# Entry
Amino acid sequence: MKPIGKGCVSLKTKIEMTTKYKQGQHGLMTCGVKARFEHKIERTETCWNWIGRKNQAGYGCFSVYQVPLAAHRFAWELYVGPIPYKKHVLHHCDNPACVRPEHLFIGDQAANNRDRATKGRNRPKHTYTRLTHCHRGHEYTPENTWIGHDGKRSIRHCCACRRERDRARAAVRGYWPRRKAK
# Structure
């Protein structure tokens, strides 16, 4: 096998070696893998949508001889060529299920982050700090917010919810309502 870059072996080379071993000296991806891959593509005017198995993010999943691969990365290797070391296959069309080679391009991690940010797919940092109300609808005001620390981060609690919880626990234990002292 020929290494590409710093010790990275091309997927195409791996498949070629496996295909020759499994099916004899008939060349790269004879009848099996390529046909199976193309059978799971729905070609439209714009994108080639992957109709096979997808992960939670919507990217296609494909396996070659029990080796799981991302469908868009396999499409790049199949139709364009090897993916350079430490590079990502990105989408121009912002459709994770698309495997059309014209809609794919190579980029590094920084390009992937920029692409994600410009297309509005960044996961917001500190999601819970932006909340204005607790999950029961009480507003987070300075009077109604208790801030604690668990050693790693600050934790914000709703005082109204805490009072309700404490009263419910006390009622179960028989401590509520409080008796007035005589």
About this structure: Residues 3-118 form a domain with the Homing Intron 3 (I-Ppo) Encoded Endonuclease; Chain A fold (CATH 3.90.75). The radius of gyration is 27 Å. The first strand starts at residue 3 and ends at 4.
